[in-house]
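Weekly puzzle thread! Below is a chain. First person to post its structure in token form gets bragging rights.
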Amino acid sequence: MMKDEPKGKYVSPSFSDRLMDKWYQYTQGNKSVKEYVTKFNEFLIRCSAFSKEGQAQILSKFKVVLREDL
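Winning reply:
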């Protein structure tokens, strides 16, 4: 956990807010499931230092924007 502390210290609040906004607005759209999962995981890794969400909330965010035709 010690290595995560500098992230919050050296990252501006506006950067973390913009990154979190992008993650919240991210949807599958025309992307394949593989493309969506890859980008979602990238957001998950990058936002983990800022997000206070639990696993259930993250899973819900992941599932809610998948296309229904899958």
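Puzzle host: Confirmed. Bonus trivia for everyone else. Residues 1-6 have pLDDT under 50 and may be disordered.
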